[in-house]
Design brief:
The chain has 149 residues and is mainly β. The chain has one helix spanning 2-22, and strands at residues 29-31, 34-38, 43-45, 48-50, 61-64, 69-78, 83-92, 98-101, 112-116, 124-131, 142-148. The strands form two sheets. Strands 1, 2, 3, 4, 5, 6 and 10 form a seven-stranded antiparallel sheet that branches.
């Protein structure tokens, strides 16, 4: 039974990943000196889920500032525990062309990691900070996320 559940989860996760990468994702909601990108649909990878908001859940949101700083906020869970959510945040222009990936502050690395040591019903709030070239700020119109768990 566990094998069937894992196989079903893997098929759903691969389908969701393919769909998530193919569809347009977050678009800019610019106001008062920052741009906000919010994903209104949930996202899964392996045994992990990033929720789309609702009661007790925070929708995945990147907020970008003209000085090249970025902040991320989301709620995640794991079905099995002992997991980690890996994420790459891609900045795109008005045509969807890749400009750059958000970097971890003080590093050239672009892989953000959130450990999920305990299984559902444990919820994890993920607050992260990032950096990007501030010269790209006026060009950023869209974002997409790649992920793995």
């Amino acid at each position: 039974m566990k094998s069937i559940r894992r196989s079903t989860i893997m098929v759903v996760a691969v389908g969701a990943l393919a769909l998530g990468l193919a569809l347009p994702t977050g678009t800019a909601n610019a106001s008062a000196g920052y741009k906000t990108f919010t994903w209104k649909s949930g996202s899964t990878a392996g045994d992990c889920t990033m929720y789309s908001g609702g009661a007790g859940w925070t929708a995945p949101t990147w907020t970008l500032y003209p000085d090249g700083t970025a902040r991320f906020d989301a709620t995640l869970t794991s079905l099995s525990g002992d997991d980690a959510w890996l994420m790459w945040a891609h900045l795109k222009d008005e045509n969807g062309a890749l400009l750059a990936d958000i970097r971890i502050p003080g590093s050239t690395g672009t892989k953000f990691v959130k450990n999920l040591p305990l299984a559902w019903p444990r919820k994890y709030r993920w607050l992260a900070e990032g950096r990007f070239d501030p010269g790209l700020y006026p060009l950023i119109k869209h974002m997409s996320l790649s992920k793995h768990c």
